[in-house]
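Writing this down once: the sequence line spells out the residues, with the fold written below as integer tokens. I am pasting one below:
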Amino acid sequence: MSQPPDPFEFLKSLWTPMGLPMAGAMAPMLNPSEVEKRIAELRLVENWLTMNLNVLRMTIQALELQKSGLEAMQGASAKPAQAREQPEEESPEGPPEK
């Protein structure tokens, strides 16, 4: 059998594209310009993630609205079919006059 995939390899692949080596990602830096650069990069990532989160939330809301609309349309189409299947109920005063 082959060995299972290394779970840390996935994390390393996430950090590497951002230019953050895994071992030194949280190491303190002494150069203020390097710290500012790192902050700017992380702010960009934060903004990108926030934008994606907002898009995801809007997609979920749109699907919930679509589901509600479909349920309403199915309920509306089921009522006339049920009315045709059920005979008219007689009123307590007797059968309707013709």
